[in-house]
Hints:
Blueprint: E1 4-9, H1 24-36, E2 41-43, E3 47-53, E4 60-66, H2 74-83, E5 91-97, E6 105-109, H3 117-126, E7 132-137, H4 147-151, H5 157-180, H6 182-189
Parallel strand pairs: 1-4, 1-5, 5-7
Antiparallel strand pairs: 2-3, 3-4, 6-7
Helix pairs in contact: 1-5, 2-3, 5-6
Amino acid sequence: MTETWLIAGLGNPGPGYSRNRHNVGQMVLDELAARVGGSFKTHKARAQILEGRLGPGGPRVVLAKPLSYMNVSGGPVSGLATFYSVDPAHVVVVHDEIDIPFNTVKLKLGGGEGGHNGLRDISKALATKDYLRVRVGVGRPQGRMDTADYVLRDFSTTEKKDLPFLVDEAADAVELLVRDGLTVAQQKFHPAKA
Length: 194
C-alpha cells in the first residue's frame, strides 16, 4: 500500500472553540493521532499534521487539522493535497453534520455540502466535490436557535457522556474507509432499513 491518504478534521482554531460541536472533526483527528502515535506539527500549508500508518502495515496517512477558520478550510486542505500529491479520491474530510442525529456516523463520496461552508470551501479549492466525507452527527438545534449559534456551542451535558464513544466510532469509520473502501465502511456504519 503506497497510496497516501489525506484525512482532514474540520474545526475552528483556538481553545475557545475546541469543545464546540463544529470541532468534532478535529476531536476525531486527535483520536486517530493517538492510534497512529506521535504528535501534530505545524505545516506551511496552515495546518497541523501528523504522518504515519493506521495500524501495522496499514495505509499511509497524513492527519491534518487546518489552522484556518472552518469557512476557509479549502486552502489548507488543497495545499496539503498538492504537497503530498494526494488525489481528491484519497482525501477524507471529517466534519460535523446537523442533518443526522447526534451519535450517528455516516460516510459518503461527493454530493452537496448541505449548507456547510467548510465543505463548500474545500470543494471550491479542490475544484471537485468528489472527495470522501465522514459525517459526524451533531443533530439539529431545538426550537428557534440559529444553526450557526448551535454548532458554535459545546455539546450538552448529556451529549458529553456519549461524545467519547461517538469520536471513537468516527475514528473507526475513517480506519475502515481507508483500509477496506467506502462500500464496506457504509455497510458497517449505516444501519439497514427495516
